[in-house]
Amino acid sequence: MNLIIPFTKDIKFKTNISEIASISLEHEYTVNDSEILGNFIITGEYKSHEVSVNRESFEHVLPFSVSLTTKIDASSVDFTIEDFTYEVIDNSILRVNIDFNVIASLKEKEEV
Q: Going by fewer Cβ within 10 Å, which terminus of the chain is more open, N or C?
């Protein structure tokens, strides 16, 4: 199995977003026999006004899950981020787009 999976999430801010000053993406995940469970962690700083020198910090945890078939060997799962983009919508929503890659091997068939 080799899949690139798109993930998009809109994050609503309580204040105006004039400019994203910095942003980073981290991830954590666990694998069991039936799924991959994890979180994308988006952190950074933004300016709420165009002329402001003050920056406000933000951190958002975005959970995700991917179902696995019983044919997948859970111990072989490799998870990587392929692409990360973002955009500000209506000065109050941060839309993040994350493409991640899941590579896994099929279980070997047991001989009877």
A: C
